[in-house]
Design brief:
- The protein is built from ten helices and eight strands.
- It is 38% helix and 19% strand.
- Strands 1-2-4-3-5-6-7-8 form an eight-stranded mixed beta sheet, with helices on both faces.
- Helix 5 crosses helix 6 (160-172).
- The chain has helices spanning 6-9, 12-24, 34-48, 104-114, 133-148, 160-172, 197-200, 209-220, 256-268, 293-312; strands at residues 56-64, 70-78, 85-90, 117-121, 152-158, 181-185, 244-252, 273-282.
- The chain is α/β, with parallel strands linked by helices.
- It starts with 5 loop residues before the first helix and ends with a helix.
- A hairpin with a 5-residue loop joins strand 1 and strand 2.
- It has a single domain (6-312), classed as Rossmann fold.
């Protein structure tokens, strides 16, 4: 299977975004210590920070996880009106980097454009806290938001956060108030790493298959996690009764086929799911939404999906 030709697939704006990203967070960042990775990742996030839209405020607090750990959260609210729904947002970062600040402006913009309250969860990272700690903290965020509002709740997350959002959807579908929808942004869901996009885009800019191998080894801590749906939603054997699902994958990303396979399994089980494989985009393109037309249009579709799910429980 031939490798992708990124000279043809990527436009000038995306190539400029990649170069700017790598000036802060170089392609070999995974070869650094974990502390070193977090340092350069945080520096990159600060460089791309777009600020808060007018009228959005945020407040930090903590909630208890199942083992008593105090999980930091950040709650976003638009000044006017009564929100029709709430969003639980789970950030990306390979389960190793990221936190409340890394996706701060993304959450603020979702809040501003939908009018929904947004709660971002600072789940524990590995290698200090291996699976299932991140999942347990995400569940704590779900329990908190479910108790805090009677409004409909949409789950959303990018990359590692998309993995966690999907895991929550599987774990909560038997509850009397399950999520009305899930919006997964270039998620890693546990697909077959020996075929499809994992091979064609093994050396993609922004995320390589070797990077994923590193993150998976860190997250599992060497434990045998095969078949654990809280680790990877595609490892579940039951795809019925899941919330309405919108998946925005990036064409130039080894993870892109995960979204396709997951959406098809939901539909085959009688559910509703839409998978979009955004052409000419790369993993992490949320940060390019103010720099590149394709990324901006993708973010528009993501926000529209969240908005529609929160208001109607359906996709636009």
């Amino acid at each position: 299977m031939e490798q992708a030709d990124y000279g043809k697939l990527l436009d000038d704006e995306i190539r400029a975004f990649i170069a700017e990203t790598e000036s802060y967070y170089p392609a070999d960042a995974v070869d650094r210590t974990v502390a070193g990775q977090r340092e350069v990742y945080d520096r990159m996030c600060r460089a791309f920070f777009a600020g808060y839209p007018e009228g959005v405020s945020a407040a930090d607090s903590t909630i208890p996880s199942a083992d008593g750990h105090a999980v930091p959260i950040r709650s976003y609210r638009r000044a006017e009106g009564h929100p029709a729904a709430a969003v639980l947002y789970l950030h990306g970062g390979g389960f190793v980097v990221g936190g409340l600040d890394s996706h701060d402006d993304v959450c603020a913009e979702i809040c501003a454009r939908t009018g929904f309250d947004v709660v971002s969860v600072d789940y524990r990272l590995c290698p200090e806290h291996i699976h299932p700690k991140a999942f347990e903290d995400a569940m704590a965020g779900w329990a908190y938001l479910r108790a805090a509002t009677d409004a409909a709740i949409v789950l959303a997350g990018d990359s590692a956060g998309g993995n966690l959002a999907a895991a929550l959807s599987h774990a909560t579908r038997g509850q009397d108030r399950p999520p009305v929808g899930q919006v997964l942004i270039y998620p890693g869901l546990g697909g077959n790493i020996d075929e499809g996009s994992y091979v064609v885009h093994a050396d993609a800019p922004m995320l390589k298959r070797s990077d994923m191998d590193f993150y998976q080894a860190m997250r599992s801590g060497g434990a045998d996690v095969r078949g654990d749906a809280t680790y990877a939603a595609l490892w579940d054997t039951d795809f019925t009764n899941l919330p309405v699902t919108f998946i925005a994958s990036a064409e130039c990303d080894p993870l892109s086929d995960d979204g396709d396979v997951y959406a098809r399994r939901i539909v085959e089980a009688g559910g509703s799911a839409i998978w979009l494989n955004d052409r000419g985009l790369v993993h992490g393109h949320l940060r390019a939404r103010h720099r590149a037309r394709r990324a901006r249009e993708s973010f528009d579709r993501i926000v529209q999906a969240i908005d529609s799910l929160g208001h109607t429980g359906k996709l636009p």
